[in-house]
Amino acid sequence: MALYKNGAFIDNHWQAASADLPPPQGARLIFGLAQWKAVRDTLQGANQPVGLALEAGEMIDDILQDLPRFSVIVLAFPKFGDGRAFSKAALLREHGFEGELRAVGDVLWDQLQLMARCGFDAFEIDNEPTLKAIRSGKSPFMTTFGQPGFGLETRDGTPRAWTRRAL
Description:
Mean pLDDT: 86
Strand order of the largest sheet: 2-1-8-7-6-5-4-3
Structural class: alpha/beta
Distance between the termini: 29 Å
Radius of gyration: 17 Å
Largest sheet: 8 strands, mixed
Low-confidence stretches: none
Strand content: 25-35%
Number of strands: 11
Number of helices: 4
């Protein structure tokens, strides 16, 4: 999978935590929700970055108090028509999560802009048409919007007072 962030493909320095194998020294681990609940207390005070992966049907209520502990939260899009991760992303940002918010699963060209507007800033992409479009130099993101979203933006300055420009 290709990891797309800040307008470029980057290396993924995170790995899923395994229940069977001990992690390599210094590994950046992403825990599933059940795994996180099991190790939450043992990692208290640990000086290492921690990530969390949430599946589409998992709620964020149980992890809100832990948000400052996560460097990355991964939200799954199991299929094109499943938009639950959009809502979760917006809620996580509203609750103050400032780390990387990563979209995984069925991440398609049509939805990248909407994902970014909800608070996502990293995208694991394996859809070939989406990869091809980005690699050919096409940008999936716009710079002028008719409604507010997450991220830095300012009023457009045009007679249309509702338009905003991304900074």
